[in-house]
Amino acid sequence: MKLNELAPKEGSIKERRRVGRGIGSGMGKTASKGHKGQKARSGVAINGYEGGQMPLYQRLPKRGFNSRVKNDYAEVNLAKIQQFIDAKKLDVKGTIDEAALVKAGVIRRVKDGVRLLGKGELTAKVTLNITGATKSATEAVEKAGGKVELINKEVKPVERKKPKVNA
């Protein structure tokens, strides 16, 4: 085989269609795009539009909603707290609050509060001062001889824009 005999496989390369090159080509004038209008222009994509028919996303039933007052908690498991106590990064003698958890590196930031989850075991006697805790987590802390004190944070009401009255 020689270099001048190299060629792509038969049928693998398709010739580009040249549009708008005279009426004799069969694809002249409007270049097979019909006459004028939005779709005859370049750079148009009408996603979701079904020609006036009710679009699919509007025909399907809607379920549920996203609450605007829902709190986003930083979640901590018992096992992670025990791990940081064993590494001497958390002090068991005093109360462990949200600021202490951030300072020790257990959580990155407090968000709307800290919620304690019951995954893992806690052997140290600790007093936790946090926003929320699951029932299993509270029982596990009390079983180890500690206690969970919950902070009562106020939920801020959502401010709605008042309609402007023309006077």
Can you describe this structure in just a few lines?
The chain has 4 helices and 6 strands, in the order αβαβαβββαβ. The chain is α/β, with parallel strands linked by helices and 167 residues long.
Question: How would you describe this protein?
Answer:
The chain is an alpha/beta fold. The protein has a domain at 74-150: Ribosomal Protein L15, Chain: K, domain 2. It contains 4 helices and 6 strands. The chain has helices at residues 56-59, 78-86, 98-104, 135-143, and strands spanning 74-77, 95-97, 114-117, 127-130, 132-133, 147-150. It has a 3-stranded parallel beta sheet with strand order 1-3-5. Strands 2-4-6 form a 3-stranded parallel beta sheet.
CATH class of the domain at 74-150: Alpha Beta
Secondary structure tally, helices: 4
CATH fold-level name of the domain at 74-150: Ribosomal Protein L15, Chain: K, domain 2
CATH architecture of the domain at 74-150: Ribosomal Protein L15, Chain: K, domain 2
Q: Which stretches of 5+ consecutive residues score pLDDT under 50?
A: none
Structural class: alpha/beta
Strand order in space, largest sheet: 1-3-5
What is the element string, with H for helices and E for strands? HEHEHEEEHE
Q: What is the average of the pLDDT values?
A: 89
- Using the CA coordinates, give the radius of gyration: 33 Å
Helix content: 10-25%
Report, as a whole number of angstroms, the end-to-end distance. 89 Å
